[in-house]
Specification:
The protein contains eleven helices and no strands. By secondary structure, it is an all-alpha fold.
């Protein structure tokens, strides 16, 4: 829900306001929940990793929202998710994380599902990656930026947890660093005449708030899941969110889901089942 709402908010306003709203609302909610939880402050290293995750996440979110606003949601989201899942999961496996053979099969099935959902509907002649201002290269750069940012977020949040961070302090630092990153980017772009402005209507405000709450919820469940399971598995499962994005885009934006993409949804479910079976 968070990424779908973020893409809509970008269309209704601009990329800067959508990301600022998502990060700002997330910061407010995380601050309140941190105070209510009474969670003790973790070591400085954990806070630093949380801040790094916030910078990476803001960069990924900005690239992702812009890609969603310019392209077809049911196509852009899966492509970004596939890359964002593949490289940090591979990194985690290469650096010592281990999973069962059945879980590896489930991860492969889930990644294949993301690929199927991202394939074009050839009956409509739709490209895998819709052009961005006439340049497919620029569209790919946005998707690669989103993948690098999201993948970095996964690894940095896990590092914060390993350094002694519990739940709400790391998430608070994630959102605080995200807000600071967006403001810093605006300060750099404004003198260059490339600041998109502060245009924000009521609809964009409401949808942006939904995006902020949804994004924080996704962050929270990732932290909780990484505490319970192997990091590569959690990363791959987390990256199945394009299934929801594609379905919401079909319902609200009338974007078509071809039989191939529906098969991808089925594979995603099978991958989750395989990963869930105890070793």
């Amino acid at each position: 829900m968070g990424d779908f709402s973020g893409g809509i908010a970008t269309r209704l306003s601009n990329n800067f306001m959508a990301v600022f709203l998502a990060q700002g609302v997330g910061l407010v909610v995380a601050s309140v929940l941190l105070l209510l939880s009474g969670e003790s402050a973790p070591p400085t290293e954990a806070l630093a990793w949380g801040a790094a995750a916030g910078v990476a996440g803001a960069f990924g979110l900005g690239s992702f929202y812009l890609a969603l606003s310019r392209g077809t949601m049911g196509l852009v989201a899966p492509a970004a998710a596939l890359l964002a899942a593949a490289w940090p999961a591979a990194f985690a496996l290469l650096t010592g994380d281990s999973v069962s053979t059945l879980a590896l099969v489930g991860m492969a099935v889930a990644l294949a599902a993301i690929v199927l959902i991202s394939l074009p509907d050839r009956r409509l002649g739709t490209p895998v990656i819709p052009t961005y201002h006439g340049s497919r290269r620029q569209e790919w750069l946005l998707i690669l930026g989103a993948a690098l940012g999201f993948g970095g977020f996964f690894l940095f949040v896990d590092a914060s947890h390993e350094a002694g961070g519990a739940v709400w302090w790391p998430l608070f630092m994630v959102k605080l660093a995200g807000v600071v990153s967006v403001v810093a980017a605006a300060a750099v772009l404004a003198p260059l005449g490339r600041f998109p402005g502060l245009r924000l209507g009521l609809a964009a405000l409401l949808v942006g708030c939904v995006a902020g709450v949804g994004d924080l919820g996704g962050n929270l469940f990732f932290v909780l899941a990484s505490d319970e399971g192997e990091l590569p598995v959690v990363i791959v499962l987390t990256s199945l969110y394009p299934v929801v994005t594609a379905i919401l885009a079909r319902i609200f934006l009338h974007e078509r889901l071809s039989p191939l993409r529906l098969a991808g949804v089925g594979l995603a479910i099978l991958g989750v089942v395989l990963i869930s079976i105890p070793a």
